[in-house]
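Hi Y.,

Following your request, here is the sequence exactly as I used it, all 442 residues.
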Amino acid sequence: MAFPALGCSFDLSPKAMTAAKKAQKHMRRRLIAGASGVLAVIALFLLVRACGSSIDGQGFGESGEAVDPGNMYGFSLAEYAPTRYLVKDGQAFGHMMDVLGVPYPKVANLLQMSKGTFNPRRWRAGDAYWVFRTADSASTAHYFVYESSQTEYIIFGLDSLYVQAVERPTKVVQRIVAGTIESSLYETLSNQNVSPAVAVRLSEVYAWTIDFFRIQKGDRFEVIFEERYVDDTSFVGTGKVLGARFVHNGKPFYAFRFEDEASGIRDFYSEEGEGLKRMFLKAPLEFARITSRYSKNRFHPVQKRWKAHLGTDYAAPTGTPILATAGGTVIAATYTSANGNYVKIKHNGTYTTQYLHMSRIAKGMRNGTRVEQGQVIGYVGSTGLATGPHVCYRFWKNGKQVDPLREPMQRTEPLPAKLWASYEAHMAPLKAQIDSIAALAE
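Below is the corresponding structure, written out as tokens. Let me know if you'd prefer a different format.
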């Protein structure tokens, strides 16, 4: 079976597995529908009538499409006629309540009731809301419903005053995606309408085993992850990555999420139960590219002479967060004319790392500060002797600078033997799904 260069998206049901293209098209339609259904939540608000606001007609924005008879937000559409509006520029909540016939004392009570639920300063033009009027000749507004997020809405009772925040039930579904790298992991996933969060999570899962600055065209991956939907159609976000396989330089790397409440374990392991984490991350940035490697003899672009370059340069946009590759104690956080802004961390009696040319050092970084692996310690820049934004990553072992890309790192502890049977039962079906999809590409 042909396998597209940028990968395919697969549903996990047997029916969809036999009709992958149809499933992919359907998923894209669902994603697009979900994206178009997003309702904004942040905005400007005044508690009283907005002076000088430009408001036409009844003071509302555009009305939405007609609503089919049934039930909406828990209200019978036989009793109430709902209309959807968009907040217009300059509109105030208090003014809209006034237009609906709600007197100011009631508005003040509603605002008091809504504290901690509804922030009157966080809405703006374009936000959507619904007004429910009685379905009789009086057409009295009884309810005002504000979509505070894709998964929550707030009901304001305008007659018998009350405020209620309601969480929509979300459905979690598994999705499996496979792809072949053409330029980057992010682009390959994006071409399949997969959230960028999945690329970030994969980079976190494999942070100790794969250098994502060295992945290349032709590398392949399969990943099973969760997506959350409201009303079975509106996409509201990604959940956990459950399992993955990444083929880098022809070598497959499996990763499976495993949780055990009794022992407190919540981590990723290989198909053999080995921990993926190592003492050091593969790189101090999540996404970038290596522009200069550790070398005993390199032509310096600023000094215009040949000299040793005992570090690894990672190019990235100015302001990109720089991460501590391992936990330790800051022993320097300062500026020099050559290094620019830099941070140096002592990890133990053997290892020390240094991060040069920062645009700025992260707040709180000073001698004696304890940092954790993956903590932001500064931001990419070009201070000191640098021709462009990058971080020069330097690595010491027993007081001598070495090449971190060639330094073998010890793994964390493997899965305890007593949990192996439970892990294998959990991992096996995920691995079978991944392998069945991978077989289509081979």
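The domain at 71-149 is CATH 3.10.450 (Nuclear Transport Factor 2; Chain: A,).

Thanks again,
Q.
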